[in-house]
Amino acid sequence: MVVLIGADVHKNSHTFVAVDAAGKQIGQITVRATHSGHEKAYRWARKSFIEQDRRWGLEDCRHLTSLLERDLLAHGEPVVRVPAKLMARQRATARTRGKSDPIDALAVARAMAREEDLPAAFTDEQAREIKLVLDRREDLVAERTRVINRLRWHLHELDPEVDPAPRALTHRPAQERVREVIEAGAGIVAEIAGMNLTDLERLCSLIGELDARLRAMVRKQEPVLLEIPGCAELSAAKIIAETAGIERFATESKFAMFAGCAPIPVWSGKTEGRVRLNRGGNRQLNCAIHRIAITQTRLEGPGKEYYERLRAKGKTVMEALRCLKNQIARRIWRTLTRVHAETLTNTPIPLNPTPTTCASQAA
């Protein structure tokens, strides 16, 4: 007998509901969202279903479930991630009306019973570390942009003829010229502008340190990504962080769909073959692949040749770019999968360079 345990997770509490293979509820418990609460849930499941195979399902919201995942995996419990849309659909079809933590946990468990090919949860500490550093860098970059905007308005008030480009202010020469203008001024505006400039210099220094750290982390963990034309260290870091383990994806098509690069079929009857733009998937990962695709269209190589060949066949700029992004996503999967297989077997595995056929993108 298999017992499926669905979890509805919140910041302060987790509710677990167990069902059998037919989806009938056979147990329920609510615990605090702490290590001791997770241990209590594990002991409850082990005591209540000692002779059954257990499988845990968590709604895929990793900012809330990451600690729970690590605690359950430490006990050797199998854990899968249930997409929120599957849980919502299951709840909408249930006979029980309303919304509560037990109802949501029951919907997660029944979604597990209905879907057999859900991604297994596992911890990838190296990818998590890269994501944490990358998130910190992006926060600092956003703050630097706000500081630059405020500084430019103060400079305009001090001297309207001083108008440095926003990107120029991230470099030392432009900052030194701005400091000369500020020191020549007087009053509260010049004082506040000097504070902003000091903040800007500090932020640039911190961002530079994080950039160097990310480059070192990427070259240590997945240097093979840098062999892909147009993929620099920051794009590779974004790919590693958002992928969180290429083993999660059984095929290159599933990874392309996760990245939002696979076209969605919308045909019926005589309109066979028609697809539309995929606006779903991981948009952060999609953005990194988009940067790589834009770069490849400007560099001499297979990517540019493929793009120009599609344009010659009549595809629009965006249609050709979507096809190129699809191929890049599939190459990323093949590259990382090959490296992972070599790590397990210690045997070099050749990478198939033959691209898959991109469906016609009429969207």
UniProtKB/TrEMBL annotation:
Molecular function terms, GO-annotated: DNA binding; transposase activity
Domain Transposase IS110-like N-terminal: from-to ranges: 5-158
A single BP term in Gene Ontology: DNA transposition
Domain Transposase IS116/IS110/IS902 C-terminal, chain residue ranges per copy: 224-308
NCBIfam families noted in UniProt: transpos_IS110
Protein name per Swiss-Prot or TrEMBL: Insertion element IS116 uncharacterized 44.8 kDa protein
Organism: Dietzia timorensis
Lineage: Bacteria, Bacillati, Actinomycetota, Actinomycetes, Mycobacteriales
